[in-house]
Amino acid sequence: MYDWIGGEATVRRLVDRFYELLDTDPDVATIRKMHKDDLGPVRQSLFEYLSGWLGGPPLFIQKRGSPCITKAHKPFHIDEAAAEQWMKCMRQAMIDVGIDEKYRQMLEPAFGRVAQALRND
């Protein structure tokens, strides 16, 4: 999938657009409040995670070891509404960066499973 959607450049743009939306869309204020003011570190972390998750270089694992995303998100109250806010940003980011619809249709359920796995309500 990494190569199909455009590799490193597209993954970087996807993550950048995701966090732009997170930072500007008032409808996702709940999940924005879960983040620090400076989104730079989490932006880099998501880029590294998605790189490997999508089949590209395992940057996150090379830097930090095996990811345990449920543990990293445990301090936050993540319910259905928060999961859907995350998905809203990711769906729009995929559209905005020009990921082909056939790949968005494959990615959306996978991203949805990740969002649901983080729920702790």
Automatic annotation (TrEMBL):
It comes from the Bacteria. GO terms for molecular function: heme binding; metal ion binding; oxygen binding; oxygen carrier activity. The keyword Signal does not apply. Gene3D superfamilies: Globins (1.10.490.10). InterPro entries: GlbO/GLB3-like, Globin-like_sf, Globin/Proto, Hemoglobin_trunc. Signal peptide: none annotated. Keywords: Heme, Iron, Metal-binding, Transport. Belongs to the truncated hemoglobin family. Group II subfamily. This is Globin.
